[in-house]
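User
New here, help please:
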Amino acid sequence: MTNVISFGDMISELDQMINHLTSQINVEFIIKETTISETKREELFKNVIDAVNTLRKINITFKDILLSPIDIDGYERDIKAKIEKMTNQLQTKASKDELSVRDADDFRKYYYHLLSFEKIIRLSGIDTQQVLDESQEKMIAKVDNLNKEITSSISNAVAVSAALMKIKFYAKNLSMFEKHINEEIDSALKRYKLSQGAAGITRLSMELEKTDIGARLISEHSNLSGEDWRKRREKMQKQDDLEYVLQKLAGDNLDKNVLRSRYKTYREKYDELLSTF
């Protein structure tokens, strides 16, 4: 005997399906998982738009059965409201004169969520791509302004160092623009080297090595990393230079004459032992 689903059971199952689909739309767009993972962001937005499309089909297919039509327009308005809030938050961060670490974290969060939304969902009346482009332009403008500071104070290693570290902060914290910003740093360093020469690079490196982000600049950019290796070679070459070592020593109870004498005795004995082999 064939089981026949009663009309009441069918309506009940349909209601359950509608409730489930509605729950997939009425979600927070920014959560820990979506902040960390691009896959999770795209999965969330795909579930949202799939649920909207399925509800739209249910509206058409069961229009004579539903007690009232599903408010698809209302769901789309809610989605747009969430996205508009996110775009406003992104634009606020992008419009700041300078970004803190927290600002940069927020910028990345809003930017990447909007980027995933733009990839998955298309809704009339909302242009997330334009917002993304404008935000990028504002961030690149910050780098351009810092580049102008470098040009205007090209002979001042302290000022150039400060500007470069600010630019590197953006490269480090805004991964979506990292490649472009690092290229800008390389270009600025080339201009600086042409203007100030090797001596200028040395002065600049001495300023940069005082901070962690400056040290990162030295290690990651060839115009500076070459200087870093040169300084290391100089130190290696001087490690057997007694007078150089004594100059670097400091302390209240330090008799350099005694140290000099003992080193001389050690060196003579060392050379004597080597000569026997």
The radius of gyration is 32 Å. The chain has a mean pLDDT of 87. The chain has twelve helices and no strands.
